[in-house]
Specification:
Elements lengths: L5 E3 L8 H10 L4 E8 H6 L2 H5 L8 E6 L3 H12 L5 E6 L4 H5 L10 H14 L4 E9 L5 H11 L6 E9 L16 H10 L5 E4 L5 H7 L5 E4 L2 H4 L7 H4 L10 H17 L4 H5 L12 H10 L3 H17 L23
Parallel strand pairs: 1-2, 1-8, 2-3, 3-4, 4-5, 5-6, 6-7, 7-8
The protein binds flavin mononucleotide (FMN).
Amino acid sequence: MNLPKLSIAPMIDYTGRPFRAFMRQLTRHTLFYTEMISAYAVLFGDRDKHLRFEEWTHPIALQLGGDDPEELARAASIAMAYGYDEVNLNCGCPSERVQSGHFGAALMANPERVRDCIQALSEATDRPVTVKHRIGIAPHDSYDDLLRFVLKVAEAPCQRFIIHARSAVLQNLNPKQNRQTPLRRELVFQLKREHPELTIELNGNISTLDEASEILKQADGAMIGRAAFQNAYLFAEADQKIFGDPSPIKTRAEAVNVYLPFVEEELRSGASITFLLKPLHSLCNGLTYAKQWRMRVSTAKTLGDIEDAVRFLNSKAQETPEGCAVQTSGSGSDAEKVEVQG
Ligand SMILES: Cc1cc2nc3c(=O)[nH]c(=O)nc-3n(C[C@H](O)[C@H](O)[C@H](O)COP(=O)(O)O)c2cc1C
């Protein structure tokens, strides 16, 4: 796999199979992350449910949560047989539930342990092993703290450091509040400048592709989180703008149309239509008919209802040419209500 210049962040309750299947209709090259899956769930849970994915949705990175090198390695050997392109260790999640398992951001307090986890993961797979983490855990969140963590982990074959450019506050702040602590991108750029030998990717509040392009001048990769579900169509231009692929950009209606066979198949195997259509909610955000669209997809009961919704899209697109990458402040959806995340 080439270095993924642009990726969509792991997001629990969002970046499951339907989301990835739909987003893949908009962008061929962007790397997608799974939701975080704990090593324990891989070892003792319903593996197929957690791990299977559609061949045509590559490239996909699996994010694992855990703090035990041996357990992570066993989970990775099982999981990587499903064909993931990368395995990533979560060292950024501040939720209490994750802390009680001693993983996520809490792991940053123990860089030696993270190094050992990365070492064990690299021995369990021939795919790249990466880590996603914060600047530090407040109050240990200076540039020197970040550097110490990264250099220690780099003693293992860690192929990429994906840094959510904020510190984690482990007491008294929930995950949502932990995404509102000050953004400190400068520290990530400094790390890349001073250690060009490391592959460094930046995450945190990137909401347009132009912003991602700017970040790519100072870092090796840009990871987008919430903007991907607040404004899915942002990614329609990603192949052209970020990866230099001149393939034509799909219209919204085209993207939904090519997603429908997946929906049909999943409905046949008993999946809920609400779950399958969730990735479509933000498709028209920023356009005058965004609310009408959202209403149609959130009340759709059958495949026929979605086909009607596509006809609606086509008729609207004829009235007003579609715009790409409309900047929105979010759909006002349930974007922020999940409490277990990074
Ligand atoms: C709903 C939600 C779920 C998340 N779940 C995860 C997760 O499973 N693993 C992880 O490392 N980070 C998780 N995060 C954090 C994101 O990956 C990302 O680091 C964070 O949202 C900052 O990026 P953004 O400002 O572009 O959204 C989650 C964030 C949100 C909003």
